[in-house]
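INTERNAL TRANSFER SHEET
From: sequence group
To: structure group
Subject: undecaprenyl-diphosphate phosphatase

Please process the attached sequence and return the structure record in the designated field. Keep the field labels unchanged so the import script can parse them.
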Amino acid sequence: MRSLPLTLKSFDVSLVLHMAERAAQPASRRRYLWLSKSGDGWLYLLSPLMVALSTTTAAAVQFLYLCGTAFAVERSLYWTIKNTTKRLRPPQAIPGMRSVIIAHDRFSLPSGHTSGAFLFVTLLCQALSPLWLLGYFWAAGVGTSRVGLGVHFPTDVCAGAALGTSVGLLISGAIL
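Return from structure group:
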C-alpha cells in the first residue's frame, strides 16, 4: 500500500475534521465555546483595572498604555494580513464542513482570537511577572477552540500565535 505525502494543507484539513468530530460531543463543544468566548476581548479591557487593584495606579496606567499601543499595532497587522491573504475559512474550503459557530468575518488567516490571546499573555509576562507564562496554556486553548469550532485551520492559529507573541515582544521591548 502506497502512502500519500502529508502536505501542510492535508494536515490542516484532517486536523480540522478530527476536531470537528470532537466538537460533536457536548462536553467538548462547551469547552471550546467557553475558551473561545474567553478570548473575545472583554478580559483585555478589564486588565488595567485588575492591575490597578493589585499594584499602583502608575503601573496600571503604564500597562494601559502598553496594551493600547500593542493592540493597535497587532490589530492593524492582523487586519492587513487577513485581507491580503484572503484565506477561506474551513466551511468554505472543505466541502460538507459545517462550523459550530459563525465567524464574524469572511477570512481565516491569521486567527484574531489567538493573536489577541498570545499578545495579552506576552504583555502580562513582560510588564508584570514571568509567572504569567502559565497564561500561554490558556492562549493555546483559545487557539485550539477556534479549530475545534470549525472556524480556523491549525496554521491560522499558529500564525495568530506568532503574530501576537512577536508584536507583544516588540512593543514591550520598545516601551518598557
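Handover comment: The CA atoms of residues 121 and 134 lie 9 Å apart. Residues 6-175 form a domain with the Vanadium-containing Chloroperoxidase; domain 2 fold (CATH 1.10.606.20).
Transfer complete.
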